[in-house]
């Protein structure tokens, strides 16, 4: 997946560590992913809910661990997991306008197990690889923070009657 240009990154889920980004999913990752699914969410086409997955206990964790391991090795996503139900919900305002509607997608809860594992691994890698100044698409940070900072800097330059082109040199 990633070229190994430095020493391997360590990542941990539920106190179990691994250093290889290509390592197949650990059972503890599957267990973590199942337990972190949100209750009360609508199921996808397969009608499997998060509550059903959690209630399956150790047998369910073992079953989905085998599925996730197979997907990881074959790089083939099950067809059922690729299907989604799209629902259009109205927002406030004139419902004749398309802009006053939003779409939600109901995907298979079992597919969310694998998606959570992939997402967690990528988050852990990106936290060490991406610059600390990068804000977009990072947990607890946002581009709005950068925009706010830039506006403050511009205002300070204007307060001291400094020309904005000098501000450009900072970046």
UniProtKB/TrEMBL annotation:
Keyword Disulfide bond applies: no
Sequence ranges of Polar residues compositional bias: 1-16
Spans annotated as Disordered: 1-27
Protein name as annotated: Endonuclease-reverse transcriptase
Keywords recorded for this protein, A-Z: Endonuclease, Hydrolase, Nuclease
UniProt keyword Transmembrane present: no
Family annotation (InterPro entries): DNA/RNA_pol_sf
Listed GO MF terms: endonuclease activity
């Amino acid at each position: 997946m990633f070229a190994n240009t430095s020493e391997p990154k360590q990542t941990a889920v539920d106190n179990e560590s691994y250093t290889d980004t290509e390592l197949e999913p650990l059972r503890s990752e599957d267990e973590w992913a199942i337990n972190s699914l949100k209750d009360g969410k609508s199921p996808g086409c397969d009608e499997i809910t998060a509550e059903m997955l959690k209630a399956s206990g150790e047998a369910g964790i073992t079953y989905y661990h085998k599925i996730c391991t197979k997907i990881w090795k074959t790089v083939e996503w099950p067809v059922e997991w690729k299907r989604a139900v799209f629902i259009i919900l109205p927002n406030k305002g004139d419902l004749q306008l398309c802009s006053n509607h939003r779409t939600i997608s109901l995907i298979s809860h079992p597919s969310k197990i694998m998606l959570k594992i992939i997402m967690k691994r990528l988050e852990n890698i990106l936290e060490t690889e991406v610059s600390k100044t990068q804000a977009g698409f990072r947990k607890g940070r946002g581009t709005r923070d950068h925009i706010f900072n830039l506006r403050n800097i511009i205002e300070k330059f204007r307060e001291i009657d400094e020309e904005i082109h000098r501000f450009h040199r900072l970046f």
